[in-house]
Design goal:
The chain is of the alpha+beta class and 428 residues long. It is built from 12 helices and 20 strands. Strands 2-1-13-12-11-8 form a 6-stranded antiparallel β-sheet, with helices on both faces.
């Protein structure tokens, strides 16, 4: 017992250190939010403009960077404004993770209990024994073992929720079991999810926004600044201006590896700097970090079409991006990585890599329907061939439709700037 108490004191001390040097804006959104001049960080105006140009090209609607809680950069594009609302997509999963932790703290639920304790039996098409093995923690970690390869893995009806593997033995980015955490929360607390969010998160931090149902999905919609407030809360160790809003132990569980299958996944948060990562729709494990240009301690909420909340404690930065993207990837790692690549170049004292000499990269790899290539020169020529050298297609496009190719390993050759680069990629 004494050892547990000492560990708890250490955790609480760590959270205090995380938040003590942070600025927290007033919870009254009509009051000003303090700013930091980018020049004090030695950020070059020309490089900031290059970042904004890139963001605009990527169909960004709103963008913010906080440094120690204060606004350094804030830009809106087109008709989008500070008061415009936008969806979080899967980035909103992290709010659900927070709420589940709060409900556990208040003894409404236990994440180690079986999900059927809160949803009742028959919420899947599994046998009773199989269903009773699925816990709330499995839902938080994407390890329910339910089949994500069904026709619509967003479908939450029992007919769509079928057994594939024992819980905890398989990681898969499966939206339906996550979505059902809403029912777990509401049944456990006896409170509607919007009211619970208001009580436990929005009122203490000044966040605004609303959960709404789109098809099967439960989607959070808010302003850019509300996403930034949530990021600042997380940067502060789950504390807002001296008030701890989430149990420190659970907070640390959220942003650390939650299972040994996908090391880059916590409780619905994506973790950078790990030895390997997995991606939606695939069982392959890829070496390295999903965002190698970002700080190793960065963790992120990432949603379809580039809804990104990225927190880098070592740099004191919170980065928010809302908008559309050029592809339909559920978790757009490449966009997250390339935003960080440009943030890294903001410092005037650093040399900027010439885009003409930057090495092309492929994304996603493996690819299912669409393969993207970054850093292509104007004279680039691309050829896809089999492993034995049989030419399959040639193109000059940075985005290639590969939906018609058979599953397997391929070679991609890029000729540009008088050089030839060959890469391997996998078609799912």
């Amino acid at each position: 017992m004494k050892k547990i108490f000492l560990c708890l004191l250490v955790v609480l001390a760590q959270q205090s250190l995380l938040s003590q040097n942070l600025y927290f804006p007033p919870t009254d959104n009509n009051q000003p939010w303090q700013t930091t001049d980018p020049a004090t960080l030695n950020w070059c105006p020309a490089r900031i403009n290059n970042l904004y140009n890139y963001l605009e090209q990527q169909n960004t609607k709103g963008f913010m960077i906080l440094k120690d809680g204060k606004i350094v950069l804030e830009r809106y594009f087109g008709t989008f404004t500070q008061d415009s609302l936008w969806y979080w997509a899967s980035a909103g999963k992290t709010i659900t993770s927070f709420l589940v932790g709060k409900a556990q703290e208040e003894n409404h639920l236990n994440i180690n209990n079986k999900t059927s304790d809160y949803l009742g039996t028959g919420w899947t098409s599994c046998s009773l024994a199989q269903e009773n093995n699925i816990t709330v923690r499995n839902q938080l970690t994407m390890t329910t073992g339910l089949d994500d390869g069904v026709t619509d893995n967003h479908c939450t009806t029992p007919a769509c929720l079928t057994y594939l593997a024992n819980p905890g033995t398989r990681w898969a980015y499966h939206n339906a079991p996550y979505t059902l955490l809403e029912g777990v929360l509401e049944n456990a607390t006896g409170v509607n999810i919007n009211l619970y969010t208001q009580q436990k998160l929005k009122t203490p931090t000044g966040m605004t926004g609303l959960w709404t149902t789109i098809d099967f999905d439960n989607v959070f919609i808010s302003r850019v600044r509300s996403m930034a407030r949530f990021g600042l809360l997380m940067q502060g160790g789950g504390a807002w201006n001296g008030t701890q809003l989430i149990n420190p132990t659970y907070y640390n569980q959220m942003i650390n590896t939650s299972q040994n299958l996908n090391l880059s996944y916590g409780y619905l948060w994506w973790l950078n700097g790990k030895a390997s990562f997995m991606v939606p729709t695939s069982q392959l494990v890829f070496p390295g970090s999903y965002a190698p240009e970002a700080p190793a301690d960065m963790y992120a909420a990432i949603g379809k079409n580039g809804q990104i909340l990225s927190i880098a404690p070592s740099q004191g930065l919170v980065v928010v991006r809302m908008g559309n993207a050029s592809n339909d990837l559920e978790v757009p790692f490449l966009l997250c990585n390339e935003i960080w690549q440009r943030i890294n170049q903001l410092d005037c004292s650093l040399a900027v890599q010439n885009p003409e000499t930057a090495q092309p990269t492929l994304y996603p790899n493996p690819a299912q329907n669409e393969l993207n290539i970054t850093h292509l020169a104007a004279d680039a020529a691309i050829e896809i061939s089999s492993l034995v050298g049989q030419r399959i297609l040639t193109t000059t496009a940075a985005t290639i439709d590969v939906s018609g190719l058979a599953r397997g390993l391929y070679l991609l050759q890029i000729r540009q700037n008088g050089q030839v680069l060959t890469k391997k990629w996998f078609k799912e």
